[in-house]
Specification:
Layout lengths: L1 E5 L6 E5 L32 E4 L2 E3 L5 E3 L3 E4 L21 H19 L5 H23 L15 H10 L4 H8 L14 H22 L3 H21 L30 H26 L8 H20 L1 H19 L6 H15 L16 H13 L2
Antiparallel strand pairs: 1-2, 1-3, 3-6, 4-5
Length: 394
């Protein structure tokens, strides 16, 4: 099953189609090694589109299962430096996605104009671009909860190792690692860890670009500017998420009976089956009692009687599982009787008496449970109120 996602923003379109394997499954083997070549142009995929793939199978009993979903993306490298929205004066993308591209354009223009301008003008323009890069970095820093510049920029590994040696044995540093603080920038956003990680990478690239622009090296800043823009485009593309619909198999509707309002044939299963099952259990137990009484003098039984004894065995097993102290001994005696009848051995009279006692206890009606209703049908509180009312009358 292949689903192609194309477009951007709210104009994303999804098209799904089934791709069948050319293999033959008539041999009914347990394992198959399958290969399928997918032609992207035949699916209508273009640069910037995404493909969602999963394999769906069904067996001879029409039971279905499917694999995990795999995502294939085709990067749109031409869109990276697109002038859409600049030429047509239409704001097709948010400002913070256009600003980094504008810095790149102005940096490249500055490098072209370098031979024709003075060194002071070149340095001033490079410094101005560094200020623009700083403002953009601060704007993205707010997405990570960085309201100030104090926490911007990461220490390298050597500085971290030096700080660890300096802070060895410092109780405050140890407490900071495990204490909960409400002013930590890491916990001030709702982004998932992967998005936070990529945003931090964007800030790092912007910081490196700003450093080189401020030191009048725009040519060295260009690779970092391009990488920051690439990471931003990836974040923009990740906002397009495809969620497959859940397959629900509903029973077929009958138009002739739909919306007719006839409810007389709707019967509760609990009221329909339970009394019938209980009556059948009582009848089986009563018939088994008579069979056990007959085999005391004649141990030959018919096949129908043997089937009835097997059914009663299931009933006694259920009763013993609920009340083992009451029916377990009778169940063991009853199962010994069944084995002796199947093997045509001599029956033990004591086992027959024990099994009969267990069946008789099953036939006894349970003792009535305490109830809040009295004999006349009124509850205790109602009867108390009526007595007070009668006593209050003159």
């Amino acid at each position: 099953m292949a689903t192609v996602a194309s477009g951007a923003g709210e104009a994303v379109k999804f098209s799904e189609q089934a791709i069948h394997f050319s293999n033959s499954f008539s041999a009914h083997n347990k394992n198959y090694a399958l290969k399928k070549t997918i032609d992207f142009p035949s699916l209508g995929m273009k640069p910037g589109d995404e493909l969602y793939l999963y394999i769906k199978t069904s067996d001879n009993s029409r039971q279905q299962t499917q694999s995990d979903t795999y995502i294939i993306s085709i990067a749109d490298t031409a869109e990276l430096m697109s002038f859409d929205g600049i030429i047509n004066s239409i704001n097709l993308k948010p400002e913070y996605f256009r600003s980094q591209r504008q810095i790149i354009i102005e940096t490249e223009q500055l490098l072209k104009d370098k031979p024709s301008i003075t060194q002071d003008a070149f340095n001033n323009k490079s410094n101005d671009l560094g200020i623009d890069q700083k403002l953009l970095r601060l704007r993205y820093g707010k997405f990570l909860g960085e309201e100030f510049e104090a926490n911007i920029g990461e220490h390298d590994e050597h500085e971290k190792a030096a700080d660890a040696n300096t802070d060895f044995g410092n109780a405050e540093v140890i407490i900071d690692q495990f204490s909960h603080k409400h002013d930590v920038a890491e916990d001030a956003t709702f982004f998932d860890p992967q998005t936070k990680k990529q945003l931090k990478a964007v800030l790092t690239e912007m910081w490196n670009a700003e450093l080189r622009l401020r030191t009048f090296k725009p040519a060295d800043a260009l690779p970092f500017e391009y990488k920051a823009l690439r990471l931003l485009k990836d974040l923009q593309q990740q906002s397009r998420v495809y969620v497959a619909k859940t397959n629900i198999k509903t029973p077929a509707l009958k138009p002739e009976t739909r919306l007719t309002g006839e409810l007389d044939k709707i019967i509760s299963p609990s009221t329909q089956n339970k009394p019938r099952q209980k009556n059948m259990s009582l009848i089986a137990a009563q018939q088994t009692l008579s069979i056990l009484e007959n085999i005391k003098t004649n141990d030959s039984i018919s096949n129908a009687e043997m089937d009835l004894l097997q059914q009663t065995n299931q009933l006694m097993m259920q009763a013993a599982s609920i009340s083992p102290g009451k029916y377990l001994a009778a169940l063991r005696s009853y199962q010994r009787i069944l084995n002796q009848l199947q093997q045509k051995q001599q029956l033990v009279l004591k086992d027959i008496h024990t099994a009969q006692q267990g069946l008789q206890q099953m036939l006894l009606s349970p003792a009535p449970k305490p109830s809040a209703l009295t004999a006349n049908g009124n509850s205790l509180s109602q009867q108390y109120f009526m007595n007070i009312k009668e006593a209050a009358q003159p």
